[in-house]
Amino acid sequence: MAEAENVEKIYKTEEEWRALLTPEQFHVMREKGTDRPFAGALLNNHEDGVYHCAGCDAPLFTSDKKFESGSGWPSFWLPVSAEAIEAHEDNSLGMQRIEVTCRRCGAHLGHLFPDGPKPTGLRYCLNSTSLGFRKQ
């Protein structure tokens, strides 16, 4: 993954993130919070476009890779590129999961599960709060 090393990272202090993000965004994206299920603004969005990081505007997922998972959070089966995101082991809350973060700014996006549709079999279960959307 040599390309991943070329992603220009963004580093900000806690104070800079607090000034940039809403309190809810800061909690979810910087403190690894979670949206309430079935409450996210982008859960039922069916428009064509690109979902991007609410913290740094990096493109992350496209609407053609979104699917209805029934989980209560926007779900995708493939990111725009492997370089867009990072996956980390997450053993918090007594569970073993894979956390998904924005590769550019490190924002918490959600979690990755192995129960998605073909062809990947993956479900990127994301917080609406961590995302922005641009119609195409």
Tell me the Rg in angstroms. Answer: 14 Å
How is the CATH topology named? Metal Binding Protein, Guanine Nucleotide Exchange Factor, Chain A
Overall, the morphology is globular
Number of domains: 1
Residue-averaged pLDDT, rounded? 95
Order of helices and strands: HHEEEEEEEEE
- Regarding CATH, which class? Mainly Beta
Characterize the largest beta sheet: strand count, sense, and whether it forms a barrel. Answer: 6 strands, antiparallel
Number of strands: 9
Low-confidence segments, given as residue ranges, are none
Strand order of the largest sheet: 3-4-8-7-6-5
CATH superfamily: Peptide methionine sulfoxide reductase
Judged by helices, strands and strand pairing, the structural class is mainly beta
The CATH architecture name reads Beta Complex
Ends apart, CA distance between termini: 29 Å
Strand content: 25-35%
Helical amount among residues, as a percent range? 10-25%
- Give the count of helical stretches: 2
Notes on the protein architecture:
This protein has 2 helices and 9 strands; from the N terminus they run H-H-E-E-E-E-E-E-E-E-E. With 136 residues, the chain is mainly β. It has a single domain (11-135), classed as Metal Binding Protein, Guanine Nucleotide Exchange Factor, Chain A, CATH 2.170.150.20. The chain has a 6-stranded antiparallel beta sheet with strand order 3-4-8-7-6-5. The longest helix has 8 residues, at 23-30. The radius of gyration is 14 Å and the shape is globular. The model has no long low-confidence stretch (mean pLDDT 95).
Itemize the secondary structure elements and their pairings.
Layout: H1 14-20, H2 23-30, E1 49-53, E2 59-62, E3 66-67, E4 75-76, E5 85-90, E6 97-102, E7 108-113, E8 123-126, E9 131-135
Antiparallel strand pairs: 1-2, 1-9, 3-4, 4-8, 5-6, 6-7, 7-8
